[in-house]
Design goal:
mainly alpha; single chain; 175 residues; 0% strand; elongated
Length: 175
């Protein structure tokens, strides 16, 4: 069961309220009600954080994200996608080692469950290569980009946008 926060409204129910009514309801602000409803409707993962006592610090946010990631079911595509989202959020707050841990975990799960040349595995490897490049691990990033290019060329074709993206990433690394 997903915990909700007071004031959350389903997307379909928003049309029954004016902005002023939404504004005066308890809980989330009026625009936040719409944002949360949209995220839920689109199936976009997000974390609910009560900030009535103030916004969490970067360290608290990292702990929350790590706890969230460790509780995910990585046997599902949804769990692996959410793990990627958490890794991106960790990277955004500067928790690079935690991000790297979860990106590597995602690559391992995808490889084990889907195979090394599955498109989702190749996407996870490309994400890992990007992170490694940004962390200065050029050799491992180069090897992964090369692997991604070969896999995407085979799976999608040499002119597919994802194949070209991997080629561009490698070119940037080599530059």
């Amino acid at each position: 069961a997903v915990k909700t926060i007071e004031g959350e409204i389903e997307w379909e129910d928003l049309k029954h309220y004016s902005f002023q009514q939404l504004k005066w309801m308890p809980g989330l602000g009026a625009s936040q009600k719409g944002e949360v409803a949209y995220l839920k409707k689109q199936g976009i993962g997000f974390m609910r954080v009560d900030v009535t006592e103030g916004a969490p610090t970067a360290e608290q946010t990292e702990r929350m994200l790590v706890e969230h990631a460790e509780a995910l079911d990585l046997g599902t595509a949804e769990g692996r996608k959410e793990l990627t989202d958490v890794a991106i959020k960790l990277r955004a707050i500067g928790a690079l080692q935690a991000s790297l841990k979860f990106v590597r975990m995602n690559v391992a799960c995808c490889t084990e469950q889907l195979g090394s040349t599955h498109i989702d595995t190749l996407r996870a490897k490309n994400h890992l290569a990007n992170l490694l490049k940004n962390l200065g691990n050029r050799d491992e990033a180069r090897a992964l980009y090369t692997e991604v290019i070969a896999g995407r060329t085979e799976q999608l074709g040499r002119t597919h946008i994802e194949t070209l993206e991997a080629k561009m990433n490698l070119a940037i690394l080599l530059n």
